[in-house]
Amino acid sequence: MAAEGGGKEMNEIKTQFTTREGLYKLLSHSEYSRPNRVPFNSQGFNPVRVSFVNVNDQSGNGDRLSFNVGRELYFYIYKGVRKAADLSKPIDKRIYKGTQPTCHDFNHLTATAESVSLLVGFSAGQIQLIDPIKKETSKLFNEERLIDKSRVTCVKWVPGSESLFLVAHSSGNMYLYNVEHTCGTTAPHYQLLKQGESFAVHTCKSKSTRNPLLKWTVGEGALNEFAFSPDGKFLACVSQDGFLRVFNFDSVELHGAMKSYFGGLLCVCWSPDGKYIVTGGEDDLVTVWSFVDCRVIARGHGHKSWVSVVAFDPYTTSVEESDPMEFSGSDEDFQDLHFGRDRANSTQSRLSKRNSTDSRPVSVTYRFGSVGQDTQLCLWDLTEDILFPHQPLSRARTHTNVMNATSPPAGSGGTNPGSNGNSITTPGNSVPPPLPRSNSLPHSAVSNAGSKSSVMDGAIASGVSKFATLSLHDRKERHHEKDHKRNHSMGHISSKSSDKLNLVTKTKTDPAKTLGTPLCPRMEDVPLLEPLICKKIAHERLTVLIFLEDCIVTACQEGFICTWARPGKVGLLSSQNQANSPSGTVV
Asked: Where does this protein have compositionally biased stretches of type Basic residues (predicted)?
């Protein structure tokens, strides 16, 4: 990384930066905020968040965005790099009393030009379903706070579902809801469905189906964020106890875990192909974790304070064939990186091809970014020399199981290399259109996937009643060759006790005992990444980082949502402008 200037120059707010793709430029006319454009006094308020949806209208300008600032929630047409933002005409604006919006998520499956479904979580624990186009409030969940009284930290629609959504709270609990069901007039009673190391899952016990369908208790302290894998089959959660935990969402089984260097983990994201997970948190680091190997493969140090958001850039992830004679695509794929939806789809397809056992050699570079409370944006490249330091690039790697769904978490042993059909498959290659499943031997776990009893399928079919079909007997038959179930097999469902809620293992994890283990390698034991760029881009802490087709979107706690045009997306810049780009950039 090029050296930064000192003193005044270090504190200067950057409006452009250069990477190998070219110049990224802040578009001041595309800034969104409250209509008065006055910086928001953010003391004591929840982070500003931004959600996007495309409504596929006929005008070609179908992007919409929603953002919260303090007690206010806005919904605008997003014009991106094309036209200036018109802040005087929000489609919808709401001001809440007694509570604040903390997070939100659009349902992309049901969005049309006439109607969108937006979930909004609140600081007092409620969840609201609204339609900002029709200006309607459809439903309010946990209205009386009988389910959870703590702040909503993350809310997301379950991928592929029009009615199921998942909500995380600062209590450390997650709840699965169905928009068609009510929450009842009394506090829910639960019965245990499954428990494992530092987690438990309960169903809601009632005569009629009601919300929540499931209650997850995960780790200790707040559950700060979760993210679904690209195919929706796995769920990555980060908590205030410093742990990343990755679950098979359908079978509610723990796949693997990782511990931060110190402090809580605040954010998490998946690579476009589902092979890697990146986290950020209070150790000021970004940590790269391999889904297949269930281990930390790299850390990145560039931030000077807590990392608040991490995100992969699918449009700048590059894949290069090592033997151009066998390449069947167009010559354009060998040019410098360009951007667009075709590029993203091509990249994802080629990532899956790169990871298949019979593919010819290819080289891949993943791009991801991070923003933090230090007001800095960092961009990182994850390259082959980091991903496979001891592996020649001449063939794709094939992994048998390092950790399967019933194995103990990373660092506690219990692998079973002798069993058949247990190779790990990554979760990123089942997104439509179907892509080849990566990192699996031929006829491996893919054939088993269809036979797995799915908790989620049960929820969709008939609510909680189907969950009982995931019986202990069935689990034993499916995994009869595996004797090392330990805590990860399904707990006995009690017919007498209604709410044994303290069954999560509450053994305090001693950081001194995890440091130096696969859960938390020492700093010198894994590669240390340096950022491609690390730029101060705001006056207040940054809370949003989203990579779109022709731009990058960031937001800070003052309530300003900024658009950074990708190279070539704002017309040709003069050589004079490029020469005057801020110091410390990398060409």
From this structure: 476-489
For residue 256, what are the β-bridge partners?
246
User: What are the angstrom distances between the C-alpha of 408 and each of 253, 295, 414, 472, 567?
Assistant: 11, 13, 6, 18, 46
Question: Going by DSSP bridges, is the β-strand pair 92-95/101-106 parallel, antiparallel, or unpaired?
Answer: unpaired
Task: Give 292-315 pLDDT, tens digit per residue.
Answer: 999 999 999 999 999 999 999 999
Given the DSSP bridges, would you call strands 307-312 and 362-372 parallel, antiparallel or unpaired?
Answer: antiparallel
CA distance 200 to 198: 7
pLDDT value, residue 514: 86
In the chain, pLDDT over 70 holds for what percent of residues?
Answer: 66
How far apart are alpha carbons 60 and 413 in whole angstroms?
Answer: 54
Neighbouring CB atoms inside 10 A of 206's CB total: 16
Residue 140, beta-bridge partner list? 128
Q: Which residues contact 86 (CB under 8 A, 6 or more apart)?
A: 77, 79
Give the pair of three-digit tokens for residue 246.
Answer: 């990755």
Residue 246 class from Cβ within 10 Å (0-12 exposed, 13-18 middle, 19+ buried)?
buried
The two tokens of residue 327 are 């390449």
Element containing residue 196 per DSSP (H, E): strand 190-196
Look up residue 219 and give its DSSP letter. S
Residue 222 CA to residue 238 CA, distance in Å, equals: 9
pLDDT value of position 553 = 98
Exposed / middle / buried, residue 573 (Cβ in 10 Å: 0-12, 13-18, 19+): middle
Sign of the alpha-carbon torsion through 124, 126, 131, 137: negative
Q: Which two tokens stand for residue 80?
A: 């991106």
Comparing CA positions, the residue from 416, 278, 432, 440 lying closest to residue 358 is 440
Closest Cα partner for 399 from 434, 363, 426? 426
Dist. CA 175–CA 186, nearest whole Å: 16
**Position 80 pLDDT exceeds 50:** yes
Structure tokens at 134: 């029709």
101-130 CB burial, b ≥16 within 10 A, e <16: bbbbbbbeeebeeeebbbbbbbbbbbbbbb
Report the predicted TM-score, pTM, of the whole model to 2 decimal places: 0.75
